[in-house]
Amino acid sequence: MYMTFKMKSIRLTVLMLLIASFFLLSVSAFANGQQDSAAPANGEKKVMKINAASMFDEVHPFTQTYYKFEELVNKYQDEVTIEVKYNLNKSLGIETDYFRFMSQGESVDLAILAPANIATRVPSIAIVDMPLLFKDYAHRNRVLASDLFKAIEEDVVKKANVRIIGYAGGASRSIISNYPITNMEDLQGFKLRVQGAPIWAKVFDAVGAVPSVIAYDEVYSAIQTGVIQGLENEKIGYAQMRFFEVAPHYTLNEHSITVRPLFMSEKAYNKFSPTVQAAIMKAGKEAGEFGAQVELELGQIELDKLVKSGLANVHPFSDADKAEFKARATPALLKYVEEAGFTELYNGIQAIK
């Protein structure tokens, strides 16, 4: 009986050892499988996908900026292949939606936004795109090349969980209307849509217009139904949003030179190694500069096409009228700058030659 019991114990021990060995082999195989899925075989780079969003089509400068970013970010590092999925033509909503998605770390990883769209969450960014801020396009570029906006960039990460990786934009904004505006007198009582940051309404109220904050994708119908008589916008936006159909007059008062930050969600950014992050920042900077140049060139081409087709009328705004616009607007602008605590930064921007 003793021998029988002993033999059973030995067989049980052997069986348990076999089961343990099988379990360890299974765990090892699973771990190797997981490792293989993260790091493709044959020395291929891991593919990491990010989502870009835009209200516009594939021709728009914002989309061209995304294309350039994808090209450059894969040129400047060789750890991973970054693939960008392009969600265009408002397929994921409008700019306020993109900001919310990026801030929450879902659906959208990359987007170019007007600063006014995030000014409620990050008030300091409003100064980046104020009217009458830059002397000209070259001055804008010198300001962006400085470190004056560094504190704002840090504020954006801290308060909104998104990161500025470059700056697009660069076009002048002018007045779009359903009746001709050729001087300051014509501007009096003009009902127009303005961006959401408070400074825009303050400036246009100061020059005698009647500003209203309306969502960008509702502007067309608001003009059509008589709620407003126009808006202020860049040439490319005028063409792409087809505002010329309800407001065929474009007045070159050029009251603002735009800055359009290229944002990446912090969640997406933090998925990458420091080496890839450095490539993202370098590619974002250069892609933004590329997009700004595209916007300047393409905006003029699109406006010229509309004029040639008889769909739009371009009106000059004299230097005297531009000076009067600035003279009327400046007290309101400076008051806003002081109340918002931007005086030192504003003076620093104006001091750059």
From TrEMBL:
Domain of life: Bacteria
The keyword Secreted is annotated on this UniProt entry: no
GO biological process: transmembrane transport
Pfam family, one: DctP
Swiss-Prot/TrEMBL keywords: Signal
InterPro entries with a match to the protein in the record: DctP_fam, TRAP_DctP_sf
Range of residues in the leader sequence: 1-31
PANTHER family per record: PTHR33376, SIALIC ACID-BINDING PERIPLASMIC PROTEIN SIAP
Protein name stated in the entry: TRAP transporter substrate-binding protein
